[in-house]
Design a protein that fits this description.
There is one protein chain. It is built from eight helices and 21 strands. By secondary structure, the chain is an alpha/beta fold. The chain has two domains: about 5-215, Spore Coat Polysaccharide Biosynthesis Protein SpsA, Chain A (Alpha-Beta Complex); about 245-310. Strands 1, 4, 5, 6, 8, 9, 10, 11 and 12 form a nine-stranded mixed sheet that branches. The chain has a five-stranded mixed sheet with strand order 14-16-18-20-21. The chain has a three-stranded parallel sheet with strand order 15-17-19, with no helix packed on it. The radius of gyration is 20 Å and the shape is globular.
Length: about 325
């Protein structure tokens, strides 16, 4: 078995927890410091030597197609789902793209981290499981159980085994085998029930790699979206390429204008071609591309885009 050269990014979901942001764009294109979430994922994969990447689409598919046409550092393959196929069915939709490959990487589009996708590969090649999941310690979401041999033995407290060594969080990064791909049924299906069935029937076929001390965040809600910006800009957590983190807590995109009498406190991320009018007071805000913030606006813990303002906590 050779190292994988292909990856797929699961990006077809509706992003319901991120509404109303995802009323305007799919979750994969929600910008983090002016760059779509999926682009951060692509950059990490390319850095790890992945040369071909698949992205599944459904919600706002045309916007993802346009984004894909503008990327030039890798080969992107789109798997469109007229009816959404779910987390396992979405993987199964890439059978033709993955033809001839012994294994491949899977990533979720709605999480960011400094975890190398290549981290799971040596363990995968050494043990040859069906699936290797990259896990990290995140106490609020630790619902993956492993034993002392680093075998995944439960998900979401379903099987309730007695030999639990640790409870950890799935990062959304995994290495999967061709054999596992062939087990995914045609049509719509979800990943967790399929993995639980395998764990029960073939102990040891799903293994874990632990990303110790990783910077990782799932971006599933408005509050977690704002928190990601806070962690990057104020705490300087390397959730994105460290070279892209500005020396202060202010990220400003190209061709953006901020009137000199504006007051900016906390963290602020402003996309490209935006205009911040005179007398504005901004605290802990994310401003999307091409957004105009009217004069004398007072915004606190807000996400603003063309024609909308959403307040978080």
């Amino acid at each position: 078995m050779v190292l994988p050269t292909k990856a797929i990014i699961l990006a077809a979901g509706y992003g319901t927890r991120l509404r109303p942001l995802t009323d305007h764009v799919p979750k994969a294109l929600v910008p983090l410091m002016g760059t779509p979430l999926v682009r951060h994922c692509i950059s990490r994969l390319v850095h790890d030597g992945i040369t071909a990447i698949g992205i599944n689409t459904h919600h706002h598919a045309q916007l993802v197609n346009q984004f894909a046409s503008e990327q030039h550092d890798c080969r992107l393959h789109i798997s469109h789902e007229p009816s959404i196929l779910g987390s396992a069915g979405g993987i199964g939709g890439f059978r033709d793209f993955l033809a001839g490959d012994d294994c491949f990487i899977v990533c979720n589009a709605d999480s960011v981290s400094n975890i190398s996708c290549a981290q799971c590969m040596p363990e995968f090649l050494r043990c040859s499981p069906l699936v290797t999941m990259v896990l990290t310690d995140n106490p609020t979401t630790n619902n993956v159980c492993i034993n002392a041999r680093q075998e995944v033995i439960d998900l979401r407290d379903t099987l309730r085994p007695t030999d639990i060594s640790a409870r950890l969080t799935y990062t959304g990064i995994a290495c999967m085998s061709r054999e596992f791909l062939d087990m995914i049924p045609a049509g719509a299906s979800e990943l967790v029930p399929l993995l639980l069935e395998l764990i029960s029937q073939k102990p040891g076929c799903v293994r874990a790699v632990i990303a110790h001390n990783a910077a990782w965040r799932d971006i599933g809600t408005i509050d977690s979206y704002l928190q990601a910006h806070r962690e990057i800009l104020l705490e300087r957590r390397p959730l994105v390429d460290e070279n892209r983190i500005p020396p202060d807590a202010l990220y400003i995109g190209d061709n953006t204008s901020i009137d000199e009498d504006c007051t900016c406190t906390g963290f602020l991320s402003i996309g490209s071609n935006a205009q911040i009018g005179p007398g504005c007071s901004l605290h802990n805000c994310v401003i999307w591309d091409t957004t105009t913030v009217p004069a004398n606006s007072i915004l606190r813990n807000a996400v603003c885009g063309p024609g909308f303002v959403i307040n978080g906590r």
